[in-house]
Amino acid sequence: MNRFHKYFSILAGTLFLSACTKTDVPVENELTPANILTTDAQFILAAGPAYTSLRGSYCNSYWQMQTLSTDEAILPSRAGGWYDGGRYQQMHYHNWTPDNPLVADTWTWGFSTISTCNRILDLFATSGDSPASTRAAAEIRTLRALMFYFMMDTYGNIPVPTSFGDTTKPARKSRTEVFNFIESEIKAVLPFLGSATDMTQYGRPNTFTAYTLLAKLYLNADVYTGKPRYNEVVTYCDSIIQSGKYSLATDFAKMFYPDNGPQMTEFIFAIPYDHAIAQGEQFNWYSLHPALQQKYGLSYRLSNPVSTIPSYYAQFDDSSDVRSSLWLTGKQYDFSGSPIIINTTRVGLDNTYSGSDGSTTVDYQLTFTPDVTLRDVAKFEAGGDELGKAKGFRNLKYYPDATATDRNQSNDVPIFRYADILLMKAEAILRGAGPTYNATALSLVNQLRTTRKAAPLSALSLDGMLKERALELNWENTRRIDLIRFGKYEDSWGYKTDVDPNKRIFPVPSGELILNPTLTQNPGY
Amino acid sequence: MILAAIPGLYAQGPGKKATIRFRHASLRQAFTEVEKQFGLNFSYNEANIALYDKDINFLLKDATAGQVLDKIFAGSPLTWTLKGSLVVLTADPNYQKKPGAAHAASETITGSITDSETGEPLSGVTVSAGDRTVLTAMDGGYSLPLPAGSYSMTISHVGYTGRTMHGIEVSATTPTVINLILNKAGADLNEVVVVGYGRQSRKLLTSAISTVQNSEFNQGNFNSPAQLLQGKVAGLSIARSGDPNGVPSIILRGPSTLRPGAAQEPFYVIDEIPGADIRLVSPDDIANIEVLKDASATAIYGTRASNGVIMITTRKGRQAQTLVNYNSYVSMENVARRIHMMSATQLKAYLARNNLALDPSDDQGADTDWQDAITQTAVSMNHHVSLSGGSNNFTYNAAVNYFNSKGILKNTGLNRLIGRAGIEQRVLNNHLKLGMSVSTSTSNSDLLPDQSIVLYNMLRYLPTVPVKKGDGTYTENLQRVQYYNPVSLQNNAWQKLKNKTILLNGTAQVTLPLGFKYDLNLISQSGQDNSGTYYTSQYTLKTGTNGQAYRSSYESSKKMLETFLTYAQRAGDHDINVLGGYSWQEDVTGDGFQASNQNFPTDALGYTNIGLGSPIGNYRNDWGPNQYQKLRLISFYTRAKYSFRDRYLLQVSLRRDASSAFGANNRWATFPSASFAWRVIDESFLKSHSLFSDLKWRIGYGITGNSLGFDPLISKVQYTSVGAFYYNGTFVNAIGPSQNANPDLKWEKTAMFNTGVDLALLKGRVKASIEYYDKKTSDLIWYYPVSTIQYFVSTYTANVGSISNKGFELTIDASPVRNASFQWVSSLSLAHNKNKLVSLSNNIFKLDSIFEASPGGQGQTGSYVQIIKSGKPVGQFFTFSYAGRNAAGVSQFYDATDKITLAPRNFMDYRYAGNAQPKLQVGWGNTLTYKSFDLNIFVRTSLGAKVMDATLADLNRPVEVTNYNLPVFSTNESTKDISAYIYSNRYVEDASYLRLDNVTLGYSFPSLFKGMRGLRIYVSGNNLAILTGYRGIDPEVSLSGLTPPSGLTPGVDNKDYYPRTRAFLVGLNLDF
After folding, report:
1. Do A299 and B859 touch (CB under 8 A)?
2. Interstrand relation of B141-145 and B718-727 (parallel, antiparallel or unpaired)
3. Of B478, B582, B890, the CB nearest to A20
4. How many CA atoms lie within 13 A of B616 on its CB side?
5. A125 near A136, Cβ under 8 Å?
6. CA distances (Å), B687 to each of A503, B1, B691, B695, B1059, in order?
7. What is the mean predicted confidence (pLDDT) over B875-882?
8. Does the beta-carbon distance from A87 to B790 stay under 8 Å?
9. What is the ipTM of this complex?
10. I need a labelling partner for B90 at 20 to 30 A (CA). Which of A134, B127, B667, B806 fits?
């Protein structure tokens, strides 16, 4: 009995001590990496963060860097609004610094998407080989290759991390090495990608996404590596054209409506946006004048900062071309034909007005004027009066979404589109690749122009090629690399006069240099 | 000589009055009565009182103690003086002594010791003087034979508060008789300090602890006990706006963390319950508050103690004393200070002068004062009823408090009902004490959604338009940036938040043989937060939703076990007290969910029938963040105190804490402390000095931790919904990591050295404490930027860097005038702190500085105004340097090379521009009592702090004068100044101020009927005047910074300041 008591007390004491010092609290409400992945659907769901990450800045900081640094668009401040430390004016003047927040945001967006892809691939690697995991991994590797492409295109030499959680800081690789890596990655995963083009695949890369990415890579190979590879552009464009899975849209405008989606025959790879649950596309908030809110039935205030530059708009000279109609220019009317009137005063209209009757009421019809003249060049200030607010023509490619309750729209945004396949093939042939399937550069461009109701061209020059791309692909993140490839990035437009070719590559953000001392800054910064 | 001391009655007010009637009373009977009525003790020589030879016969109504004493001693050879609560009687030396009045006796001290509550004699009490120690006999009597001389005498007894008396003269000619009454430990709050897991005589403290008594509390319409202390405790900074639902921001001895919010907060211990919800006590329930400031005091609370510990002791029942008390006030509050915006007339004059005009839609002939339109005079009230009492072994207390505070912003307010009850029973011949208590609190808050936008627009909405148009709808112009009719916002959305908190507490204390005592404390606290928010179909910030509703319900719970064993023994000159304990705690928070809906058929029902909505399109229910979290804390602690002759005092403590929140590799940590005090006054070489009546030197060092302010899963990878993505025709939620794991994460560690001197001069008329501390916090927890190439997300919670705070504190309490009818008590607290960030790096992460505080005004996205940099204090302003306007009227700035530029570059052209830390903070309170009147005047001042007035900067947009109203400040600004609003040192203002914080005038009535013990009525004014050069609403802005903050950014006034109020109170205290 005594012995029993002794053992019992030792046991009880041990139990008490272990219970009273136990600090492990089970996590009861969070998912853990231990979740088993088996079905196709589960793999795709696990891959989801890569797609939400991709959506994040594609239409924001990335678009701003790719577009505001060209003649396609300008974002002046008006009465001080949108000055924001000069981040947008630096894009226009080509005098951006490594501290520019757009430079940092885009870097963070790109590499955290790449990192997310790496993490997902690590997760997939732990769940064994199966057709589902192989295909899901191939999609994520394609997406990662696309992000490496964006980053290499924007920042030149970049780090190429391919595994997650490695705390050694990756050094930069040369543009050519990155180019070769992207090329080999896509070719490695091509056999495992699906070729469906319907809604089961919409929003995720398929074989044709991979072909397009290769074609883009080769079209710009001369810029990236110094070695042109135009024949391969034609090869991969043909893989898409000959598949017969895509065709030019019969209604160009509707392709960009808020209800666009998998039914768009031109979309090879697009980002699906939704104003409520998949947010990030706000083009109209940037482009439209507040007085247009009622006309388009919008329930949010329009901010109005972005216009195009007259020399760019001047290319839309064919009024029968449907692509010319997607701009707001000159006097504005509502759908019933009544003028859009702003009730103001003479000084409210023009605050430089010096007459003594400045407070006299004026009914001003909203009239977009082509020139974005600056009142104060140092502050990139276009003026906060009604005339200032109406400066610059506005893009209306992504039609306003009247169902939106805030500035986010539901229009899906294409990353790769069939029209670009035709244009890339045409340009490659124009630059010396062998024509295939009886198509010449001119016939390909005219095929597109005819569909867009533009007069066919009788001859095609490189300038004509660039112009056609502007007509077709504005607001689609391609103008910057196009200008570079055509040698026109150092031209002057608007108030920009910079001719430094170092600006073809953006700087490494200053914060990244602090976080990763193995990185080196690009020349000229 | 006989010295009798009877404890003061519980919580005597400064103007205590009583009605006294003597009929043929002896002097001793009179003493008893005065002691009872006024809580005074008498000190006298037996020989002298023999000189008093008359009966006492009088009736005095509504008399102060002074009046009564004057009456008793008028015409006698004795005169009285008041020293603290001691009435010292002296005889006129010229008076002819009666023969036989003084007769020789043996050289002894004799007397008897009795219990203060029961009056029973106490046996076995240790009485020592010189080298002699005796125990009292069954009748409580003792006799201590001693050679002639001057002695300090110490009386101690288990369960009672010990007493020490100095300067007791033993001579052959005079018998020395000392009869004493002992208080049960803790009963006499004037002497005993709650130190955490026990109590201690203030005299024997070795650490820096400030006590604020109930009678010294700030008077006002307060929702948090912290406000009772504002300005009262040197080194404790408290800032609060006028928001009735606002939580004051508190910092003790300078910022010692880089995290804002809860990480800054001191740790609250209410009636020995660590971490109890402060909503459970109303100010009237509180007997006193102790602030544990230095590490040697706080280290016993280990990981939660870095920001100091605030110990709240509530009122308890006492044996044989039935008390009923009713306290009430009504207050009226209005806006104390406003930003002077232009009136319609001023605005039009400005426009005309600059040849500008308003748009016709903006020029409607109105002159609306929008600040007036959304504010109101707020009437608030508080009622508190308490009863307490007890019989032999049983005490009870119960109280109910109702608090209803309206906000000065219309539609805001808070009402709270608190109920408390406690009982305590002694059984087993006083060897076991059992206690139970329950506290409940129900709070209803009325909040304004988007309050900061309302506050911004109340300033800048154009005065020339009316609140409502002729057709009854609100004036709106939704084409401008962040421009919304504030009255419409205020009336078209509401949030109601209901909190219920219940605390159950059971205690047991066993007195064991051999000086041991065992305490067990079981605590269960649960809380329920229910919230409903509704935005009507007219709400201009939610256009297109046609009514939007949110409801949420979250529960929280806290379970705690505290158990400790105390050993106390006194043997001769040695006094030992050793404590060992264990505590276990488990907290669950966020147990609940949220739901949302939109598109309601009517706004009439608000959120109350959330199922009526018909959401449009791809609308998704907003389930809110899933915050279910469980935290476990486990601790072992020990403390040992040793004192030699109550003169050399030594204390060491050690706490070992574990928290499940920390990385698996660093769950446990040890927090030691040691302190020493020397009661210099008791040394013989000071005996002959008459300058000091108390002198003590303290020195201590200890380490504490800080883990407050983040969720329990901080060290683990967390997965959340990272947004929806398209999959096969629908949008589905993508699940991804939202936080990096850091298995090495551990506590912030604060090491503090503290030394202080407590002294009393001029026979206790002046008391002072001086403290010096040197506090160094290392392993700062911070959200370190990392590259997403290696990590899931771009911030990594890690221990990096260190921060230093050094400072002085001075507290002086003085009674410059103290006579029968007039007393003046003055207290001054003064604190200086020097803060410096030492480093931001550890062995993995290296960073010299980081930009913080981005007020984000229109056109200034990405501008920062502060820098966190090694060598600089927290709150270091780093912004552009203003260089005046050029000929064209446009603001210019200096660039990095001192050249003038119109377009300064972010980061590159920033310069240092002062910091937000005050150099000196002073609180000065004065209580004047004249006959039945008492007057309290409290003044606070803060010197040397700077504030970035981002509000003024963002309002100063003369270029947009036709769109937004301007402050009167802008009258001479140029309408060409496109850069007027740019944050620069032009808006970094001196935030020094002198504030007349409180004036209270009270009058105490005599007993009006039998059974009534006292009635006091008072009027009080809060925040009556402020002297400052600051141009914003109030220079006292949050110590934490911007909301939602990323880091600690004190001193940024950013358009969302809920105006501070000026309040007038009328109140009464009634005692039965």
Report:
1. no
2. unpaired
3. B582
4. 15
5. no
6. 85, 19, 10, 12, 55
7. 95
8. no
9. 0.88
10. B127
List the structure tokens of A197.
């083009």
The answer for B 987-1046 residues in CB contact with A (under 8 A) is none
Q: Which of A242, A236, A241 is nearest to A216 (CA)?
A: A236
Among the partner-chain residues A23, A84, A354, the one whose CB lies closest to the CB of B860 is A84
Nearest Cα to B606, choosing from B529, B544, B533? B533
Give me the DSSP letters along B940-1006.
Answer: EEEES-EEEEHHHHHH--GGGTTTS--BGGGGG--TT-TTTTS-BGGGEEE--EEEEEEEEEEEEEP
Whether residues B723 and A403 touch (CB distance < 8 A) is answered with no
Chain B window 832-891: which residues touch A at a Cβ cutoff of 8 Å? 847, 858-863, 890
> What phi and psi values does residue A403 have, to the nearest 5 degrees?
-85, -10
For chain A, the straight-line distance linking the first and the last C-alpha, in angstroms and rounded, comes to: 86
Question: Residue A262 corresponds to which tokens in the numbers above?
Answer: 């998998």
Residue of B nearest to A289 (CA): B479
Candidate from A170, A293, A302 with C-beta closest to B789: A170
Nearest CA to CA, how far is A219 from chain B (Å)? 28
Q: Which two tokens stand for residue B749?
A: 């560690």
Distance between first and last Cα of chain B: 37
3-class DSSP assignment, residue A40: helix
Q: Which residues in B lie closer than 8 A to residue A512 (C-beta atoms)?
A: 787
- Give the lowest-confidence range in B601-615, B774-788, B865-879: B774-788
Residue B481 at interface with chain A, using a CB cutoff of 8 Å = yes
Find the DSSP H helices in A264-316. 283-287, 310-313
- Any idea what the Cα angle at residue B167 is, between residues B164 and B168, rounded to 5°? 85
* B47's tokens: 């020989």
Q: Is the pLDDT of residue B865 over 90?
A: yes
Which of A17, A18, A21 to probe the B interface (max B CBs under 10 A)?
A21
Cβ–Cβ below 8 Å for A25 and B356: no
Cut 0.80: pTM above it: yes
Residues of A in contact with B630 (CB under 8 A): 25-26, 28
Quote the strand ranges of B26-129, DSSP E: 41-44, 56-63, 78-83, 86-91, 108-115, 126-129
Per the document, the length of chain A is 525
The sign of the dihedral angle between the CA atoms of B49, B50, B54, B56 is positive
- Write the pLDDT tens digit of every residue in B713-751: 788 777 777 889 999 888 988 877 788 888 888 889 999
Half-sphere exposure of A87 (CA within 13 A, CB side): 23
Distance CA A31, CA B626 (A): 12
User: Hey, CA dihedral for B683, B684, B686, B690, is it positive or negative?
Assistant: positive
